[in-house]
Structure formats: C-alpha cells, structure tokens
Amino acid sequence: MRGRLGELEAAVMDVLWGDAGPCRVRDVRARLAPARPLAYTTVMTALDNLHRKGWVQRELDGRAYLYTPAASREEETARALRDLLDGPGDTEAVLLHFARSVSERESAVLLAALSGPDRG
C-alpha cells in the first residue's frame, strides 16, 4: 500500500497527471505558482518524496530530472479502492453499499466490465 498523499504531494501529482509529458521541478513549480507560490527546493523535496514512495518515476536529463507519474490517476484510484477492500471489515457489505450508490451509467459500466471477454 502506498499510503495517502499530503496536500502538496497531491497538488504535485495533479500537475503531473495533467501534463502530456515529463516535467522538471521548475515546470511543476510554475504550474503551482498561481495558486501557491513555493520555493524551488520545496517542490524538489516533494518530488523526491514522491519518487521514494513510488508515485513518480524520474529520468536524468542533463543536470535535471524529468518526472512522470508511475501510474495514471485512474490506476492509483483503483489501487486505493482495492486497498480499502483488502482492509479490515466486511468486504461484501462495503461492495453492496457501493453498488447501491452508483448511478445508472456507472452501473452499466460495471455490468459491461463484469461480463466482458477481457474480465480477468
């Protein structure tokens, strides 16, 4: 289990998930700047922590790292749901409560996924 993200880490991941390509620290800092002016070293530390935790991958490009998400937002969300289901408690009850809360469209998506040929 990867654990939850802090507020700044979540904001950094939002930037990385929103971009089409790899980002340097300065790119992430610039995208965060309008809402939250941060020191370069603060953003660098957040990215280093995310790398250590396995949330981002990095590749050295000259003297700077290029950061990319290790998984998509959807993959991470699914992983978090799986972690919740694997936790203590009645998994069937949790699934039933969830199933009762979904919209008709979401229900159709789930039914199609459960009956599709690539189900597992």
Summary, kept brief:
Helices cover 59% and strands 10% of the residues. It has 120 residues and is mainly α.
Characteristics:
120 residues; mainly alpha; 2 strands; 10% strand
Mean pLDDT: 90
User: What separation lies between the terminal Cα atoms?
Assistant: 22 Å
Please tally the helical runs, counting DSSP H or I stretches of 4 or more residues: 6
Helical fraction equals 55-70%
Strand order of the largest sheet: 1-2
Structural class comes to mainly alpha
User: Which sheet architecture does the biggest sheet show?
Assistant: 2 strands, antiparallel
Task: Explain this structure.
The protein has 120 residues and is mainly alpha-helical. Helix content is 59%, strand content 10%. The protein has a two-stranded antiparallel sheet with strand order 1-2. A hairpin with a 2-residue loop joins β1 (56-61) and β2 (64-69). The protein is elongated, with a radius of gyration of 18 Å.
